[in-house]
């Protein structure tokens, strides 16, 4: 190998040499009590377990943290990291706990930093349209507070998600088509690095070219480069005059063709979501929605803006949908009707789970995003694979972004088949110049797929950055990039 | 210092040990001819000079590159970097040459990689709304090509700028208020790292959470982390029904208050620019504009969208401007009238330069961005300082983003006074939680201000990343972060 290389291939990185022996943890515990007090430490086994794995984010191993620590400030986190750095104790951060793909698994034991005591909205700058928040603020609570001032924070991942985890994941949701993803709404972060150094990645202006974009390096880094202890978030004005339309199509490809036309015309819809025929069937069968739906691929569309702008958008969409052979078009601007129409989209995931044939059935999903011209093709292929295997599955998607989730419900005997189908969908996505993860993140489960997607040199560049900022691999070790060929995960 | 730190303070980084001796360059030249042919090498002194300094971007020293190399492909660039890496020859990339603040200065001599032969639009994916381009494609040429397909690429920096440099700078322009900056329009880059490794930072989907955001680390890195040899850019639909309004106000603060209301209402104007009274006077005196303008702070506003959406926006703006005591409101949707109205904004910089009292007079400018609530205050203070010093200066700004440029024209005898005023404006910007560079980049000139703005630990984190990816400091050494306390720049 050349001297002074720009990347760090696996095998060349130092093997993580953590110290999670009982005496080391026990000594650390005393020091940590000095920082957060006795009440700021927890080691109840059930709590340790619940922060390392969830039904949605299983951890393959049985490892979990030895201690949970509850800091109250950036200074606390810095002092905690200095203890862990000196003692070489691995650390995983925990906020809302809603992430997928193993991002929160404490694969190396050590310490879990639970941010639940750092849950305050610190400043609201209404004139500047930004807010300063701590990591355990939930996006739903933030929006409740902002609504009082007619303001709005768009990223809308799963219920319960909190800002710290949302930054870690670089998440998005149904609002991404109009408003972009988390990275577009974080102006600045305060992070604590592996050795306890506190860094503010940027000041508070909305626009900046002040050096390397550390903010965006942190967004999507899953707590592997630093722990976010504060963030400045952009906010916008609250959408007005909401309207919803539901449009049934004879096929996914006709629905997607409509979406492509919408994207090309640059129509600023508030959201545009596709539920396939299987999902619509699940919605009907679940009883979560009071309405009986056509069981065909269906677009759920949200509009917002001035009354005339919304009406204009509805008209354009109606024309486009007609051109692509829509079967029905229903729309409403009545709040109650909107809620009834949108309910199918909102309860789609619950409806799918309600289809479990056995309580022990498991759920497996993909998060592929492709250039939109390939979207209909990959959705059809994904559904065909599931049908051919005789499994229960369905697809829904944030189609305006080319991002879709195929879900499979399976019993243990079909596990390998289900896993293979999901892996096939991910590979097809890569072949179509797409990604295996549009919004959920790499976490633990997708590390090897990441290399398939971006190539070895890109992953080696990421590993180089990881070890430059965290040479001991203390922060959420094993996530995003492998650091050991066989780490048992 | 602790072992395994997360940052790299100045003094701790290895001193760049480049080899730019004549024999080494001469041997490298032979190898480079093997890669790009004799016609792909240039060492004419005037050409070497013109790639290291411009009227807009003076280089304090007299150093320039010893050779210019003209690659034709990513492979060429990779092979060139392998030669330079092995021989420890520093490298600076060159595209449109329009950057400011010394970003293109070859402070360490060595080699200039001129991308002018890599100027092709490689792919246009109209359905996916993206394009694949080489670094020497100019944004104006790109838009001319896209216009044929009713498509549009929004970032609009100075005329002549090319994609490679625009990515390096993370630039923007008048379209940023509506469309965001360069970082929002780069889906993926292909970069060659310091040791010649080729990395593709992302695939082609519009949305992705596939590992660290290498794309956004590269955007704004001024060619210090890697050389961009290809980029996938997002495009959007071409704006329709353009309309322009020009609104004169009795004071900057009344103009800015109007802008704040616009931002808070989330009105998607295409552009909103402020020219202060001094700029308007310069426009009148220059004769570039056929119209005689009021010499008061004036907002130049662009609208686009459906006819009714534009009309609605014009109406809202009219009401807001009236509320804030506008002196006049002129608008037009006639292409000729639009051109006549917008001419003042377009020729503002030329108008200022035309005010030179002496051909040797120099031009100095700031690029501060602040939270918008502080914008009127800082503009007033900046102008007061210039007036108090009896110098010729003015302010114009991308006010929707809180970003403004104060310019001073001065003769040599007033150089120190002018420099101090600009430094004061930058410091005021930092005190208001803003940045010293909203869109021009740190380059060479703003390195020490960067530390004042973000703190030592943030800059040390950047330096850590720089040396992780480029341990020999070959790529555009001395830019963004200092690597030697006294480098003579």
UniProtKB/TrEMBL annotation, chains A, B:
Keywords, comma-separated and alphabetical: FAD, Flavoprotein, Oxidoreductase
Protein name (Swiss-Prot/TrEMBL): D-lactate dehydrogenase (cytochrome)
GO terms for MF: D-lactate dehydrogenase (cytochrome) activity; D-lactate dehydrogenase (NAD+) activity; FAD binding
PANTHER family: D-LACTATE DEHYDROGENASE, D-LACTATE DEHYDROGENASE (CYTOCHROME) (AFU_ORTHOLOGUE AFUA_7G02560)
Gene: DLD1_2
Record domain FAD-binding PCMH-type: where: 60-238
InterPro entries: FAD-bd_oxidored_4_C (IPR004113), FAD-bd_PCMH (IPR016166), FAD-bd_PCMH-like_sf (IPR036318), FAD-bd_PCMH_sub2 (IPR016169), FAD-linked_Oxase-like_C (IPR016164), Oxid_FAD_bind_N (IPR006094), Vanillyl_alc_oxidase_C-sub2 (IPR016171)
One biological process term in Gene Ontology: lactate catabolic process
Reactions catalysed according to its record: (R)-lactate + 2 Fe(III)-[cytochrome c] = 2 Fe(II)-[cytochrome c] + pyruvate + 2 H(+)
The UniProt record lists the keyword Flavoprotein: yes
E.C. no: 1.1.2.4
Similarity annotation: Belongs to the FAD-binding oxidoreductase/transferase type 4 family.
A GO cellular component annotation in the UniProt record: mitochondrion
Stored Gene3D superfamilies: 3.30.465.10, 3.30.70.2740, Vanillyl-alcohol Oxidase, Chain A, domain 4 (1.10.45.10)
One of the Pfam families matching this protein, by short name: FAD-oxidase_C
Keyword check for Nucleotide-binding: no
Swiss-Prot/TrEMBL cofactor(s): FAD
């Amino acid at each position: 190998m050349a001297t002074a290389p720009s990347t760090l291939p696996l095998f060349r990185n130092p093997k993580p040499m953590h110290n999670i022996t009982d005496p080391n943890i026990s000594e650390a515990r005393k020091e940590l009590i000095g920082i957060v007090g006795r009440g700021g430490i927890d080691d109840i086994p059930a709590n340790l377990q619940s922060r390392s794995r969830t039904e949605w984010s299983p951890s393959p191993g049985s490892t979990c943290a030895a201690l949970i620590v509850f800091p109250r400030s950036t200074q606390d986190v810095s002092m905690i990291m200095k203890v862990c750095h000196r003692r070489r104790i691995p650390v995983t951060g925990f906020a809302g706990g809603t992430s997928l793909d193993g991002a929160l698994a404490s694969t190396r034991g050590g310490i879990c930093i639970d941010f639940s005591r750092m849950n305050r909205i610190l400043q609201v700058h209404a004139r500047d349209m930004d807010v300063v928040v701590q990591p355990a603020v939930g996006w739903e609570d933030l929006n409740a507070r902002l609504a009082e001032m007619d303001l709005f924070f768009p990223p809308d991942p799963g219920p319960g998600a909190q800002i710290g985890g949302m930054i870690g994941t670089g998440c998005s949701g149904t609002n991404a088509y109009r408003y972009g993803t988390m990275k577009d709404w974080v102006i600045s972060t305060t992070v604590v690095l592996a050795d306890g150094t506190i860094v503010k990645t940027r000041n508070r202006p909305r626009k900046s070219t002040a050096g390397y974009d550390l903010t965006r390096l942190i967004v999507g880094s899953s707590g592997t480069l630093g722990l976010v202890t504060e963030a400045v978030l952009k906010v916008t004005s609250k959408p007005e005059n909401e309207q919803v339309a539901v449009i049934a199509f004879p096929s996914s490809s006709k629905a997607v063709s409509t979406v492509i036309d919408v994207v090309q015309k640059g129509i600023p819809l508030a959201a545009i979501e596709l539920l396939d025929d299987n999902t619509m069937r699940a919605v009907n069968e679940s009883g979560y929605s009071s309405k009986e739906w056509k069981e065909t691929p269906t677009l759920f569309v949200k509009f917002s803006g001035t009354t005339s702008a919304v009406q204009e958008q509805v008209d354009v969409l109606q024309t486009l949908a007609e051109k692509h052979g829509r079967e029905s078009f229903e729309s409403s601007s009545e709040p109650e009707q909107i809620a009834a129409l949108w309910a199918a989209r909102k309860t789609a995931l619950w409806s799918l789970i309600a289809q479990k044939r056995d309580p022990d059935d498991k759920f497996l999903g993909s998060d592929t995003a492709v250039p939109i011209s390939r979207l209909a093709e990959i959705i059809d292929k994904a559904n065909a694979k599931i049908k051919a295997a005789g499994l229960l599955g369905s697809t829904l998607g944030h189609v305006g972004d080319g991002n879709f989730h195929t879900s499979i419900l399976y019993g243990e005997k079909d596990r390998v088949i289900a896993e293979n189908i999901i892996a096939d969908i991910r590979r097809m996505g890569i072949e179509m110049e797409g990604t295996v993860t549009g919004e959920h993140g790499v976490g633990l489960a997708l590390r090897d797929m990441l290399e398939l997607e971006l190539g070895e040199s890109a992953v080696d560049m990421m590993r180089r950055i990881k070890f430059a900022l965290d040479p001991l691999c203390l922060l959420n070790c094993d996530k995003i990039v492998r650091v050991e060929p066989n780490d048992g995960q």
